[in-house]
């Protein structure tokens, strides 16, 4: 499997070779034996049994005598990493009533203590091996499975053997003592509490309706308070012994090492595992069944109305069929593609109707096999008002048309072109598919009981199938998608009395007239017919920047481009356009238009082309058009490919040169903003999302989340008045990184960005605009309307911004990582107060201020003082005492590995070099990148802590429930002295 030899070679020119060398020495394990249980040559691998899908030759499969199945492959993306997944067929649907939550609790307990790892040793051990907890080391529990994940960097034979041993000990021999259960249950309860709230209640209530009579109705992985609090080592052990068995386990490994060695290590550490007791058959998950007397032609069944005052309206109904295992054949996959085509046609029509202005904000249909419990066709939409019936009728009218009349051949061809570009791109990029994704693909296939196919196989199946697609065949699949055993619905609304179950049931039983108005008329639009941006520009300077093979090209109109043409990532080109002055250019009274810009600026079109026409132009092409408002610049971003790069650059340049001002996207964005606003108050996290940036900028109105009244006052005319001058203002920098022809791209840039009219200079007052940090003092208090046991707390210290101290900003990230580890340990292990506290350092490099280190956590209201006390204690300790060697290495080694892995990709370098045409010092500072992260000594970290934590008190925010007072003392038993 391909590595990145050229990227690594280039990397060595920038980062000292010694810093890329392995820093961790492990005791050498004896060499693993040759694998003995591979699928024999000519045999059928276990995942392809009963399938005629061509085998993906990159994967090597094996089955151990005890029933463990495995799959391994060579993969060098990212280099020197191995990704391991251990999947156990045991999720929440396998729990008995008294065991609810046990599958997820076991996930936690396996990390707490096991055969080769003492109490609470798992996380620090993986950190010493270079893995970052939460991203490289993780686990997840679903209704049908539990998966343990490890992405291990800087791999070698000894580290692989050690890691496989540790994983096998976790899965095969966890220590399920009463003490461990007692220690872990509060952490799970904290996770449960932080997930709870209006959205969780609405989701659970909807699930109970949609899966009535089935286990999935009430078997959520997090469990119940009663079952978790009653858990003991014996009861959890019984669940473990029933389901954690070899025959229920699949091990997947993909990485930059000999796959025979991967297979041998799996066989060595999992081969002698024996299940305890007789095998237990999996429980029956149940089938969706229509109520007695339901109309077979329209079997409307259970309906639920969920009232949550802090949530926007959402309506879901589903046509449900029993789930059954399938024979994963080519014919079956051709059918799936036709199903997907039928859904895509309806979804495009639904979106077209929403864009035109109507009764709903969005609507979508989607087929899904849910948790091996039901084969479902979902219909989801958001009514704009309390008239849910009008929205339901409008959505059903579009669907009724798709059920009554075949689509046009033009519509089919358009969707087939969209599918084709996706499948071709996957083939082009299969050499650089990352190992974690490939491993996850196997796990997901096992979970749904299907096989896996290589990208070129998928493309071949598609190409053979597309010739058989006719309007009549699409109509046949559409009708099958909307036929089923029962139809169920759930409506979430903020208004009590707005709907009744009987009214919704009657509405679903009504016949609706087919609405063909949403069908998209055939149009012929070509890039060749679009006007030029302007006369092609002149190149005034061109040459290398001194890093890798990257070049800078300057144009006479002031536009500057940074280009890196390379073959590290076949089929991928990243494009980023930075222009203007970002938030600095937003006037205090225009915050609502900054917010609307995210949703409406791109949709408002280019020249005479509206969003529908732009979508038509993109047919069969890979485009992107992401827009962001940054601290010091506005940005467009896209992931495209060489074949579409010319048109992508044209679209970006044309948006600056000849923007369109279609009012409909602005009106739609206003409606979305108003619907979302009230939901911010539903829980502490929503309040943080709504208010934190505003508060941390000392109530700067530019960063205020607009209120419904502000949205009401905004107009499409006002939107244009704000954004039209901003699109003409400030310098333009274009970054193009990836696989492309450099000379051809420079010529394209000359005809697009080089052809732009000279830019207006931002006013000096804009460039000098600063963002203040709030003064420390009394804790700022905000209140939410969610559950009484939920709160959030933030403590923050100001740092800085700009390029001048960019090296210090990197060192601050090291300090923040140490802070994060300590806070995690304090809040989870000692206080039992928070599931996942976070410490983050933000340093805007394109403005001279606005940086901060912030620690935050969601927790119980009474534990807010615990959080502040722990955070302040940690800050003080960091400022007064150097970090110990082991603690230092547990932070630095994962950072070293992260930089080494990330630097093999184009986006890493694009991010490091953006704004370099304005601040060339960024280029020179690249040489210190890895050393700043990995050679900042403990004494230097202490000096940094003294500078930022010792100079002033932290600013504090508490988000507590309405009607409660802020606790000011640490609860008994949670004292911080240790």
From TrEMBL:
Keywords: Hydrolase, Metalloprotease, Protease, Signal, Zinc
Keyword Signal on entry: yes
InterPro entries: Metalloenz_LuxS/M16, Pept_M16_N, Peptidase_M16, Peptidase_M16_C
Residue ranges occupied by any Peptidase M16 N-terminal domain in the UniProt entry: 78-191
Signal sequence extent: 1-27
Superkingdom of this protein's organism: Bacteria
Alphabetical list of Pfam families matching this protein: Peptidase_M16 (PF00675), Peptidase_M16_C (PF05193)
Domain Peptidase M16 C-terminal: 234-416, 730-893
Keyword Oxidoreductase: no
Family: Belongs to the peptidase M16 family.
This protein's name: Insulinase family protein
